[in-house]
Every structure is written in structure tokens, then in C-alpha cells.
Amino acid sequence: MPPVHGEAEFGYIAHSGNTESKALNTRLAGEYTIGRHRSSAEWRYFHLYKDGEEDSRTFTYAAQTDFKLGPKAYLYGNFQGVDSKYSAYFKDYTVSSGLGYQITNTETFLLEFEVGPGFRYQKPNTEEIDDDDLVFPEDVKEGIVRTHITSAWQVVDNLRLAADVTAVSGRSNMRIDSSISINNEITERIALKIAHSQAYHDRVPEGLYNSDSLFSVNVLFDF
Fold first, then answer.
1. Name one Pfam family in it (predicted).
2. Is residue 189 part of a domain?
3. Is residue 123 part of a domain?
């Protein structure tokens, strides 16, 4: 595998009838590996128009760097951020560092586990808070513990399953993000990706659900 690897992902959904909606989601990701060092970055964009008006716009970004200590163990540093104009938080940032361990890493199956302390900053969108927003109207600045599990299974040459779970736990609340995806290669560089993601909050305003989920079908370009 070359030291530099990148992906670009695009999806579009249009709905008409009783309601009119259009949604665009984009993802760019890259990874660079040299010697014991591995660095990766990811940027996501989600834009939703509903009945002719902008209803949601969210930027999500992440960066991580790893340094291998041995055949399986490594140190990591991680940053994750969300900027959103219409959702519960204007800003939601997490930084963390700790120890990672590759339980297995073969051509057909990958399983990694990470755990470490960190810090979380959340600024609520008090101007946009509605009854159905998963937020309490207070700034959050606190220490956290982050755990992360990632796995990937190359079922056959052109079919790949992947799953990730990240838990961020602090004094004010705990959030668990999970995702599962299926990549079906159309050509060597183009694939169809079907994904389902879910965000779970253990503390929500009374009467609201603890989780939100998203289903998407995208075209993935590998370079």
C-alpha cells in the first residue's frame, strides 16, 4: 500500500410530495504512513434544505496521529470537532491522547482499540434551541475519557464491512457515536457505500429520545 491514501465521498438525496427536501453530504479523508508514524484527517459536510429553506448545515472534522511502540501497541493523539449553525451546538470539540492496541491486523480483518483521557468543549446554540434539541443551555468545559473501537472485514475482493464505536464520557454527559458501513467496489477506484450512523446521549431533556440516526448511500472515490 502506498504511504499516502485518500478518499472522496459524495451523496445527494431529494424528496418531493407533502414536503420538499434536498440533502447533500460530502466526505474527504486522507492517511499518511511512514515508518512508525501514521497520520490521518477527515472532513465531512452535511447540508439540508427543507421546503425551500436551509434547515441544517454541519461541518465535522477529525485529525489523528499515531506512533507505534511495538508490533501491536501505539500512542495516539486525537482531535474531533463539529461546527453547526442550526443544531444544538454551535461548537463541539474534543481532544484526547492515550494508548491504542491492534488486536489483529491482517489483509482480511482489522480490529483496533483506543483509550485515553482528554478535554471537551461544547458551546450550545442558545438561539436555535428547540424542544427537540439534545442539549442543555450551558457551556461545557471538562475532562473526559475517550474510548474507541474500529474494525474492518474484507469479506470478498470487492466487498468490505466496517464498524466504529466512540464513547466520550465526562461529568456532564456521555455521548456514544457508532457507525457501520458496506463498501461494494464498482471499479478499482469507485465504490458504492451504504452507511448507518447513530449518536446516543445519556442525558437529554425530558420527553426526548436518547439517540439520533442517519442512513446514507454515497459514491466513494479512492485515490
1. DUF481
2. yes
3. yes
Q: Quick check: pTM over 0.90?
A: no
| Alpha-carbon distances of 174 from 70, 125, 150, 154, 203, rounded to whole Å | 32, 19, 19, 32, 7
The domain tally of the chain equals 1
Contact 97, 78 (CB under 8 A): yes
Instruction: Indicate the pLDDT class of residue 16, thresholds 50, 70 and 90.
Output: low
By residue range, what is the domain housing residue 142? 63-222
Looking up residue 184, the CATH number of its domain turns out to be 2.40.160.40
- For residue 192, CA distances in Å to 120, 160, 165 come to 34, 11, 22
Domain contains 187: yes
Helix (H, G, I), strand (E, B), or coil: what is residue 122? Answer: strand
Q: What is the dihedral of CA 134, 64, 43, 204, to 10 degrees?
A: 0
